[in-house]
Amino acid sequence: QVQLVESGGGLVRPGGSLTLTCATSGFTFRNHGMRWYRQAPGQEREWLATITADGEIRNYASSVQDRFLIRKDNAKERLYLHMSSLKPEDTAVYYCYGHESWGPGTQVTVSS
Q1: Are 82 and 72 in contact (CB under 8 A)?
Q2: Letter string b/e over residues 85-108, b meaning 16 or more CB atoms within 10 A of that residue's CB
Q3: Which residues have a Cβ under 8 Å from the Cβ of 85 and sit 6 or more positions away?
Q4: Cα 21 to Cα 42, 44, 80, 90, distances in angstroms
Q5: Residue 50 pLDDT class (50, 70, 90 cuts)
Q6: Mean pLDDT over residues 55-62, rounded?
Q7: What is the pLDDT of residue 41?
């Protein structure tokens, strides 16, 4: 059974940093590219970043380019999203996606 579980969300001040983790199980993580998405209240789910199976190639949405970093640890079967220079508009529920499956999401709130 494929499982993805995000963690690391919380409340952070504007300009701060946060790292999200997606723990996975039930599939061969090293063989799959992975993605991060987010969804703010009243908005559609937004793609943020993609990483290839080997972790070598990354792509980002323009809204997070140069502020967010997606990383993949194939040994630990975990996906990460390192977020910096956070803005109030980054407030959303953040989801990891892989092997055609979604995690339940983790809330990130950026507020002073």
Answers
A1: no
A2: ebeeebbbbbbbbbbeeebebbeb
A3: 15, 17, 67
A4: 25, 22, 5, 17
A5: very high
A6: 97
A7: 92
Starting at the earlier edge strand, list the strands of the sheet with 68-73.
Answer: 3-7, 18-25, 78-83, 68-73
Phi and psi for 8 in degrees, rounded to 5? 105, -5
CB-based burial of residue 18 (10 Å sphere; 0-12 exposed, 13-18 middle, 19+ buried)?
A: buried
The pLDDT score that the predictor gives to residue 110 is 98
Please give the single-letter amino acid code of residue 8: G
The answer to whether residues 38 and 22 touch, using CB atoms and an 8 Å cutoff, is no
**Cβ–Cβ under 8 Å, residues 68 and 50:** no
Going by C-alpha positions, the residue among 75, 67, 78 that lies closest to residue 14 is: 67
Secondary structure class of 90 (helix, strand, coil): helix
